[in-house]
Design a protein that fits this description.
mainly alpha; 60% helix; DNA-binding; Endonuclease III, domain 1
Length: 212
DNA sequence: AACTCGGGGCA
DNA sequence: TGCCCAGAGTT
């Protein structure tokens, strides 16, 4: 058991009493598409395009009909739009043809869709299907390593260890907490260690002050 | 294991 | 205006 976890949970519970997904939840299909789009960009950028996009195109059939070029125009502002347009359209086709027009509810099947890796699959499982998972994005990965809750460069190992160490009823909250903390305080570059309440529990900070 | 895809935000 | 940020697929 990671010894500072109680303190960390206590701090986050106060600071973020009711953490929620930044991606606006719609249908499971739309959440899947929004999550595919969110790779290598921010939820803010994705939310800028989804309202208009889902107003024009609602269901898998609507996306399956589009040409790559048509969809590229709609989502250009999120970047990596050629890949993502292809992933979205091909995933839509696969959902229709292979999964009876239902977003699959298993991780294996979700990860079989183009553009869906483990992080995206876990986000969909957690938010669309209320399965208890910890999706490991770059924030979760970085913050968990810095705090010293995990010590690994393997994403799958971060997920595994967090699920072992964090009480199950906190998995979803913990996921959001590390993301918020990673964005606002424990940033990839120039983290605000001085103002961070968790610094006395943080391996990264302790190493910083030791190193000078 | 390294490379590719690409825009927005910010110093 | 150039650097940094954020996942998945391919080679």
């Amino acid at each position: 058991m990671y010894k500072n976890l109680g303190k960390i949970i206590e701090y986050f519970s106060k600071k973020y009493p009711k953490p929620e997904t930044a991606l606006k939840f719609m249908t499971p299909f739309q959440l899947l598409i929004a999550t595919i789009m969110s790779a290598q960009t921010t939820d803010v950028q994705v939310n800028k395009v989804t309202e208009k996009l889902f107003n024009k195109f609602e269901k898998a059939e609507d996306f399956a009909k589009l040409s790559y070029e048509e969809l590229e125009k709609e989502i250009k502002s999120i970047g990596l739009y050629k890949n993502k347009s292809k992933y979205i359209i091909e995933s839509s086709k696969m959902i229709i043809n292979k999964y009876s027009n239902e977003v699959p509810k298993s991780r294996e099947k979700l990860m079989n869709l183009p553009g869906v890796g483990r992080k995206t699959a876990n986000v969909v499982l957690a938010n669309a299907f209320k399965q208890n998972t910890i999706a490991v994005d770059t924030h979760v990965f970085r913050v968990a390593n810095r705090l010293g809750i995990v010590n690994t460069d393997k994403t799958d190992q971060v997920e595994k260890t967090l699920m072992e160490v964090v009480p199950e009823n906190y998995w979803s909250k913990f996921h959001h907490w590390l993301i918020f903390h990673g964005r606002e305080v424990c940033k990839a570059r120039n983290p605000y260690c001085q103002g961070c309440t968790l610094k006395s529990y943080c391996k990264y900070y302790q190493n910083q002050i030791k190193g000078g």
